[in-house]
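Deviation from plan, reported transparently: iron/sulfur cluster complex.
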Amino acid sequence: MAGPFSGFLVTLRQIFRRKVTTQYPEQKRVKPQRFHGRHVLNRYPDGMEKCIGCELCAGVCPARCIYVRGKDNPIDEPVSPGERYGFVYEINMLRCIFCALCVEACPTEAITMTHLFEMSVSDRDEAIFTRSELLMEPDGSVPHPQPDSVLFDRGELQVADGWMRATAPAGRAAYEGVVAWTPTAGAGLRPPEPGQEGESPTGDEPVDSSPEPGAS
Ligand code: SF4
Ligand code: SF4
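Because the crystal trials were delayed, the predicted structure below was used instead.
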């Protein structure tokens, strides 16, 4: 007889435990700083596009899910500060493995990843993000493929241009407190890198043999 009741006992014990369920989507957990969310194509603070259509991101992508075509900038009305700009830019989100190699390869910090992860689609074609979905608005907010998304109401797209840096200088103690990236339009400067000082999980003093920022 004890068998079935011991099962109920397990259930009963859970009732009095602290609930860990997050009431998504009303509540969202804060993502780690380097979370790999959906991509965004950045602009300079003056509104010019950072992408120069060099196709390095497409070349490095292990999933072959980026398609870029570069085009010469119009002399009278240049789109980017370079010779060319990416007049076609597409990412197939169904194939993307969110590795961020495209972010690493980009020489102008044009392609970066946000903390946005809600990308459900009702058609496979919608999963191919084009310039309309990727290129940030002049006010620094991120476009979204679904115009009725609750993300608009909550203002999450206005603060979603979170520039992430996956490798150095982030994580190098020599860069602690140094703002090492270009500000994005609308959102202003990111806070400086927090660095690693005093954060060693092993309790060891962090060792940094890298050169100081700006040292040649
Ligand atoms: S995150 Fe990785 S898989 Fe996705 S587009 Fe960039 S390089 Fe390709
Ligand atoms: S996003 Fe960067 S790497 Fe890709 S084409 Fe544009 S400038 Fe080149």
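Strands lie at 39-41, 66-72, 84-92, 111-113, 128-129. We consider this an acceptable substitute for the interim report.
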